[in-house]
Amino acid sequence: MALIEVSGICKSFGSGADRRDVLIDASLSIERGEFVSIVGMMGCGKSTFLKIAGGLVSPDRGRVEVNGVQVRGVQPNAAIVFQNYSLLPWFSALENVRLAVGAAFPDWNKDRQREQAARHLEAVGLGKALQRRPSQLSGGMRQRVAIARAFATEPEILFLDEPFGALDALTRESLQQELARLSSAAERPVTTLMITNSVEEALLLSDRIVPMTKGAHPLGHPVRVELRRPRTAGELMHDDHAAHVRAHVVSSLTRDLKPSTKRQVA
Amino acid sequence: MKRAVNLLLPLIGIALALVVWAGASTLVPDLPSPVKTWQESKLYILKPLEKRGEMDQGIALLAYYSLMRVARGFLLGIAMATPLGFLLGMSKTATRIFDPIMQVLRPISPLAWLPLGLILFQKSEPAALFAIAVCSMWPTVINTMAGVRAIPQDYWNVAKVLRLSRFTTFAKIVVPATLPYMFTGFRLSLGIAWLVIVASEMLTGTPGVGGFLWQEYNSLIYAHILLAILTIGVVGFVLDRLMGMAEARLRAI
Description:
The complex is a heterodimer.
Chain A: E1 4-13, E2 20-30, E3 35-40, H1 46-54, E4 61-66, E5 69-70, E6 78-81, H2 93-104, H3 110-123, H4 139-152, E7 157-161, H5 169-185, E8 191-196, H6 199-205, E9 208-212, E10 223-224, H7 233-238, H8 240-254, H9 260-265
Parallel strand pairs in A: 3-8, 3-9, 6-7, 7-8
Antiparallel strand pairs in A: 1-2, 1-4, 4-5, 9-10
Helix pairs in contact in A: 2-3, 2-4, 3-4, 4-5
Chain B: H1 2-27, H2 34-46, H3 59-90, H4 92-105, H5 110-121, H6 124-149, H7 153-161, H8 166-204, H9 209-218, H10 222-251
Helix pairs in contact in B: 2-10, 3-4, 3-6, 3-8, 5-6, 6-8, 8-9, 8-10, 9-10
């Protein structure tokens, strides 16, 4: 049985003439321990799908099940990393992470919570920046704090909403590697759903890639990535299997863009 | 050079105001000139802490009485306003319940509240505090409410994702996020409280800058009216600056 089963999700925003259908009958199932990426272009509703799967937004129709049980709201064993970091600017890096640890492990004493927070910040290379506020950290360092905050709660399920979207290419790459390392180093397998608009990012990290387009049944056929880990961007560039996956994903994403009638209107 | 200009320009403004004042005093016989005002007031300014009678006291003492009254009324006001602001910010239902009352109560002058306070509390001191509190609370209510509503969705998401309890969400997210708005409210409220104090002291005849002003008017010592007016202005300015500095420190976070 799949760990996460998202089925028949419909969601629209606004009403009357302003009503926009963002998701029409979207379904996805994720096995325990799997790393699944949804790749899609801007505006295809992938972020909304993730927020619904993560329990931040409730769907108009459809259901989210974890371990066969329907869930409403954020699951206790899940963590979410956002594109814009979502750190609290009035707290230090350590306090931001400790707040999460305190909420996840309320019966630990303060020292143990701090120790857990510090250990996870050290794991992402921020051991020397524990006391800094988010405003004193670079974008990459802020996202490291956010990732440390997620892992410090020892989640079973991790939702990543374009976690590297706001970062420059070099920072992005080193953080991708870091995330891959943290995921495989966790004591129990972390089941991960990531949203991205980069096929390369998905190739680097995922077991399965799901292309997403607009319209009904937006989630296409998943493609399995059969490559050894850890993967590097350099390897992927010359690997035949990676090329095959890339071609498949890109063609599913661009299939709907072909009709020439649209171009005439433009 | 630039510093000299920065210093000089405000002085030009003050000099101009003094010229206008002196000119007006030649036209209106009852209005004391700046020089006469100084001569008749210097006892109060040079011996600011001397107590000669109930109203006949140094200007610093009078200002101190007024400030203490303002402090109590203001604290009472924000003690009511801050929780109300949070409530209105977080609950649409509460807003719909209280909004009409607020809109009606807000424009009422302190002069109108004071007699009601006297009826309610029988004594002038609590009536003055009541008037200050009721008049000065609105900017804090409205700014706190606006601050809560302006909390970015990101922060609410953090609370949801971390599954923070209601109390933790309030203490660790809502209050810190609202603090700069609250302080803007506090600064505006304090300004109003200082406006109200003069009116309430004039009506109740309690010792303080406003009471002094009214007594000297009745005693036909017009120079002291000007002394009281200037004192009110300077103290109000200093209060606003102090609150502004506290506010700026909060915004720097």
